[in-house]
Design a protein that fits this description.
The complex is a heterodimer of chains A (about 350) and B (about 325). Chain A is an alpha/beta fold. Chain A contains nine helices and twelve strands. Chain B starts with a helix and ends in a 9-residue tail after the last helix. The chains are: A alpha/beta (about 350), B mainly alpha (about 325).
């Protein structure tokens, strides 16, 4: 991949864990475990995931379908439905564990503190309600004023902020294009100025031009708000343009967390290496590489490292011992036995 | 509302009525039965008159009713009569006018079946929505199996069971009829009370059997709707469960239900035939049943034509109302 083909994010962010590096951590996810109960046993969709988000940071999560990305998003909102269940872990939002909140408490936190832009945002709007109604609906239940000039001005300002005409407020979703719908969803998500925005594949089903516009809008708003964003997806190009750090998921686990530039230049985990190598590039035209094999069944995951059956460097140790996500190089967290733990840092 | 849309819908409505009325004319004639002869032979069998005179009477009646004319002429007369809502006179209860008989029976049926249908729709839809709602109160899930079982029982059978226990064994409600024997229908308060009292059992049998139907289809729609992204996003907005239930899930799930409701309301004028028979209710259903038994064509025509017009009207009203309920539907031709 040539360096010019990818516009990298803003200044490099320092340490990985976010702990003790001076920048304030807004969301600290620790050992999150989510299972789906099936008659054949529990499916461990998210199996001990930890990461920290700093204020204003854009953090990407990539992985194959079923690797647990969307489950992380839903569990952080406490929206996992049966047969799914949050088995354990913490998510500290400014020090409060939002996974431990009651449903009533969580209702107040949603949107106001942590907002979710759902997957398939094309259908995220109620088809029989005007955009205005769908914005103020949320305000009503969060105790915000919804009548009078001030509220109207807030709606207008909000719509302009995401690049929509104020007239959109009076329209129904079917009168909007896909990109406009997505902007309206973003407008609702940011309407109470949340600290964390989770965007779960916000641009799926949009064409690349609109994708880029939406992502630029999202980035602009993120900077205005100073909010942290978790961007979930599997489009590596989009990640390269948008996020500061990237987490690579495999079979319900994070296998590598690295600053985006390093991730592309020098992926450490064998899975990240294969993932990056599989991207089509201008430098190596005509070559398409895949990763042989299929992701493991989460019902009956392999012993040891979940990636070992597909890993070209698998050793005896990989078949028996699960590698922990550790600091292997400065700023680089990797779960792999091939590398020695970096000394000196926690 | 654009005038063009209204005119288009009206044209379709008239077309439907005409086609259905024509089918209505030809179908009974395929049975080959001669109502006048049937009736006179019945009377002859009872009274012992000779069959020789019957043939003469038949001829004179056929001339009177126009049954001796060619079919196409009968058809044209029929259409002209239908336009004026003139269904002629009853054959079996000559010389009562059919329109008058229907008018007498119609209020009974309209009130009973409309109210019962609307109640079954409201209760059933709400209940079905709650059954599919995970946060619904516990009693909903306890009540669900018996109520759904009731819907599998035909309503006339349900009616018989209700009559047996509530009217015959325990004598809480009257056995049948629309009002107390011996009273004359009037608009007095006492009479209305009495009529309402008589309508409870038939209404109950229609509601109990209807609730399950509405609940089942609503439940299916609710399950689908709850999987929609906009419900997940509504939850992510931190809305209260009640608002999500009413404004997002139920509001969208009810849309297909309204179509079924409009059609059900169109059928109201024909009455709940079997319920009316079981309860001896003086409604249109009973009238129709008696008419079919005695090959009383004018009444059959009249009632069937009323049903056609009612269903046509119900669909017309639905067509005009749907764009209000669902903004995705417009009055414009696409």
């Amino acid at each position: 991949m040539s360096d010019t083909s990818v516009r990298l994010g803003k200044t490099e962010v320092g340490a990985v864990g976010g702990r003790g590096d001076g920048t304030e951590v807004v969301l600290d996810v620790r050992d999150l475990r989510v299972s789906y109960v099936t008659p054949r046993g529990p499916i461990r969709a998210v199996n001990g995931v930890s990461f920290a988000l700093r204020r204003g940071e854009a953090f990407g999560l990539v992985g194959e379908s079923g690797s647990g990305k969307s489950t992380i998003a839903l569990s952080l909102m406490q929206l996992i439905k049966p047969p799914g269940r949050i088995e354990g872990g913490q998510a500290l939002l400014d020090g409060t564990d939002i996974l431990a909140l009651s449903e009533e408490e969580m209702q107040r936190v949603r949107l106001a503190e942590i907002a979710l832009i759902t997957q398939g945002a094309m259908n995220s709007l109620n088809p029989v309600m005007r955009i205005r109604e769908q914005i103020i609906d949320a305000w009503k239940d969060h105790g915000e004023p919804v009548n009078g000039r001030e509220a109207e001005e807030r709606i207008h300002h909000l719509l302009r902020w995401v690049g929509l005409q104020p007239e959109v407020a009076r329209m129904y979703p079917h009168e909007l294009s896909g990109g406009m719908k997505q902007r309206a969803v973003i407008a609702i998500a940011i309407s109470l100025r949340p600290k964390v925005i989770i965007a779960d594949e916000p641009t799926s089903a949009l064409d690349v031009v609109v994708q880029r516009q939406i992502m630029q809008t999202l980035r602009r708003i993120q900077r205005d708000l100073g909010a942290a964003v978790i961007l979930i997806g599997h489009d590596m190009g989009l990640m390269a343009q948008f996020v500061d750090r990237l987490g690579v998921m495999y079979a319900g686990k994070l296998v590598e967390v690295s600053p985006i530039r390093e991730m592309f230049r020098d992926p450490i985990h064998p899975y990240s290496q294969l993932l990056i190598a599989s991207l089509p590039s201008l430098a190596k035209k005509g070559q398409f590489l895949g990763i042989p094999g299929l992701p493991p069944s989460l019902l009956d995951p392999p012993l040891g490292c979940p990636f070992h059956p597909r890993c070209p460097y698998a050793m005896e140790r990989c078949r028996v011992e699960v590698p922990a996500l550790e600091l292997k190089r400065p700023n680089r967290l990797v779960a792999c036995h091939l590398y020695e733990r970096e000394e000196g840092q926690a | 509302m654009p005038l063009g849309y209204l005119l288009r819908r009206l044209t379709v409505f008239l077309l439907i009525v005409w086609v259905a009325a024509s089918v209505n004319f030809f179908i009974p004639r395929l049975s080959g039965a001669d109502p006048v002869r049937e009736r006179l032979l019945q009377m002859a069998a009872v009274g012992g008159t000779g069959t020789g005179t019957v043939e003469e009477v038949v001829k004179s009646y056929q001339a009177k009713f126009g049954l001796d004319k060619p079919l196409w002429q009968q058809y044209l007369f029929y259409l002209a009569d239908m336009v004026r809502f003139d269904f002629g006179v009853s054959i079996t209860r000559f010389p009562n006018s059919v329109a008058g008989m229907i008018l007498d029976a119609l209020p009974w049926t309209l009130v009973l079946v409309t109210v019962a249908t609307l109640m079954a729709f409201a209760i059933g839809s709400l209940f079905g929505a709650l059954v599919a709602w995970p946060r619904a109160p516990r009693f909903v899930h306890v009540l669900a199996p018996p109520l759904l079982t009731l819907s599998a029982i035909p309503y006339y059978l349900l009616g018989l069971i209700l009559v047996y226990f509530l009217a015959f064994t325990w004598r809480i409600f009257p056995l049948g009829g629309g009002y107390k024997v011996g009273t004359q229908p009037s608009w007095s308060w006492a009479f209305i009370q009495d009529a309402a009292y008589h309508s409870i059992l038939p209404a109950l049998s229609i509601i109990l059997s209807g609730v399950g139907f509405w609940a089942l289809s609503m439940r299916g729609m609710m399950v689908t709707t709850q999987g929609e992204d906009y419900v997940t996003f509504a939850e992510a907005k931190g809305l209260r469960p009640r608002r999500i239930f009413l404004r997002y899930a139920l509001r969208n799930a009810i849309l297909p239900q309204t179509t079924a409701l409009a059609l059900a309301l169109g059928h109201v004028v024909s009455g709940a035939v079997l319920v009316e028979i079981v309860f001896g209710y003086p409604g249109v259903g009973n009238l129709l049943y008696q008419a079919i038994r005695t090959f009383d064509y004018p009444i059959i025509y009249g009632v069937t034509f009323m049903v056609i017009v009612a269903i046509g009207l119900a669909t017309l009203i639905l067509d005009l109302l749907l764009p209000v309920l669902d903004p995705r539907i417009t009055y414009h031709r696409t």
